[in-house]
Amino acid sequence: MPPRMIYTGIRVKNMDESIRFYTEILGMKLLEREQTPQTQGEVATLKSPGSEQEIELNWYAQGSRFGTPYTNGSEVDHLGFDVDDLDEWVRELEKKGVKALLRIREIGGWNEAFIEDPNGIWIEFLQRK
Amino acid sequence: MPPRMIYTGIRVKNMDESIRFYTEILGMKLLEREQTPQTQGEVATLKSPGSEQEIELNWYAQGSRFGTPYTNGSEVDHLGFDVDDLDEWVRELEKKGVKALLRIREIGGWNEAFIEDPNGIWIEFLQRK
Q1: How far apart are alpha carbons A3 and B83 in whole angstroms?
Q2: Per the domain annotation, does A117 fall within a domain?
Q3: Which residue in A93, A106, B51, B67 could disulfide with A4, CB within 3.0 to 4.6 Å?
Q4: How do residues B34-85 score in pLDDT, each as one tens digit?
Q5: What is the pTM of this model?
Q6: ipTM, two decimals
């Protein structure tokens, strides 16, 4: 049996702020949040309603062997989210004070918008026709 | 309806080498691979058998506006994979010439091993009891 991918673990600068973003702004559900004394950190797992994709937010205290300075690299290109009505969703985001950074209409037949999470990770919203 | 997370998009340095790693070493299935003239790049989508998690590999040609130098940052902590028998899986990896970098026994009740993908992204295998 080959391994089964079960989540994407991203690292966050501030756990409370990141959970707030993924739940209040993106409407994800917090499945679990726990201290991890082994890494001197905290772990939280989230999922969108109607999706099986899970993300794990990882936070490490200063002094943890994993608590190196947070640097924005290229490894994450973006996290992809599907929406029913992109224009309506962008208006909802704006009401919450989140501005879409980029709109690409009809690239590859997809209607897309991008925002950044509190860690600088790009989030793509796309409306599939 | 809140947005539904549908994949994690990671950026890769070499598309062929990365697809080979995720299919031949990790046993994932290649769902789609296509040129994206809009970004002067290529996109490939993969999924593990028995899992709904999808990853999208993104590659950009030099000269693309997205083709900035590849830098390993902190945004991806790791990608998480579940295995039935970790010792057996680590032996299978070794047969394929892939060495586990780190074994953490019984951290949080999980039996874990880590490797790196060709882009320097950490991959975690865990056997849940």
Answers
A1: 5
A2: yes
A3: B51
A4: 998 888 999 999 999 999 999 999 999 988 888 888 888 889 999 999 999 9
A5: 0.90
A6: 0.89
